[in-house]
Amino acid sequence: MRTKLGLLYGGKSAEHKVSMQTAMAVIKALDLEQFEIHPIYITTEGQWVRGPQLMGPVDNVKALEFSGEGQGSQASLAPSLFQVEKEQGSQALDVIFPLLHGPNGEDGTVQGLLELLNLPYVGNGVLASAAGMDKVIMKNIFAQAGLAQVNYVSFVRSEWEKEKEISYSRVEEQLGYPCFVKPANLGSSVGISKCTNREELEKAFIEAFQFDRKVIIEEGVVAREIEVGILGNDEPECSVAGEIIPKKDFYDYKAKYEDGDTALVIPADIPQDTYDELKEQAIKAYKALDCSGLVRADFFLTQDGKLLINEVNTMPGFTPFSMFPLLWKHTGVEYPELIKKLVKLATERHAEKQNIKYTF
Asked: Is the CB of residue 20 less than 8 Å from the CB of residue 66?
């Protein structure tokens, strides 16, 4: 029997378009002899809509944007969204694959819903998703785990609005220039600015606070950007390492998802001992956040050979330009096999949880 796979995509997030591209790519990669594809679309306004079963790849994202008005569609958040009608009656979908990026999807909120419904789902759980989404919390956990990273400070909007000058001065005193200002709870390089002076810093704060109530400012460092993919639950494995060589100052949203204006070097040209250390730190970070399923871990490699962990992405993209699937392809895991592994990991984790006692 084919696995009834629910694809959850879209979302009320600044990364809605990224999620749509990810869904397109995953649908093209699915083996229809092994999977039934059941789309669940979340609009930009946060409406959940169940679409009809997909019988093959779609040509464009418009085909995945359901209005909730078609026959058999479901336009509200209800358990029936995660069921399918068979001759034997209603059956729950076997596995949910959340292809959601950013807040309201990658941050533990959707994962919590799926936990309450007791449904198997691909990827990280509530804690790892929430901690991995919030760059400040994530970096605090990394610091506790003893992982080396760049210096950073953070502010919430109300703190900055009351004492703007003090906030700017603190950045200049503790980090200096250049530095990077980022929304704390957003990915895909949305809202990020590189600052080399006070004027740019002030504009960067305004930009970042459009996307979140909390911002993080990180010390600029001259370094290579090295990334590694991780798969697994309690015994995670690492892919080969890859290097990002942006043609701009940094790897921004447009370079990632629109024009491919960057070079991805896989495998990265690094010494074996550096790769061994990279794997060790990546798995240490994975376990510190209690991750499961998949993660892309991003590092800085300085000119003197020091590795600094930058962040982990608990739901890396699957677009044609995305590093995560390319890393595994070069490790020997092709696109369809990668999806099978993720679904298997999801079912294994869910099965283990069913052994937990909730009464005594």
From this structure: no
Q: Which CATH superfamily is domain 222-352 in?
A: ATP-grasp fold, B domain (3.30.470.20)
Query: What is 151-219's CATH number?
Result: 3.30.1490.20
What pTM value is reported for the model? 0.88
Domain 3-121 classification at class level: alpha beta
pLDDT tens-digit profile, the chain (360 residues): 899 999 999 998 878 888 998 899 899 889 899 999 999 999 998 899 999 999 988 888 899 998 766 555 666 778 889 998 887 788 999 999 999 987 788 899 999 999 999 999 999 999 999 999 999 999 999 999 999 999 999 999 999 999 999 999 999 999 999 999 999 987 656 789 999 999 999 999 999 999 899 999 999 999 999 999 999 999 999 999 999 987 765 544 444 444 455 788 999 999 999 999 999 999 999 999 999 999 999 999 999 999 999 999 999 877 757 899 999 999 999 988 999 999 999 999 999 999 988 888
- Spatial separation of the C-alpha atoms in residues 284 and 236, rounded to whole Å: 10
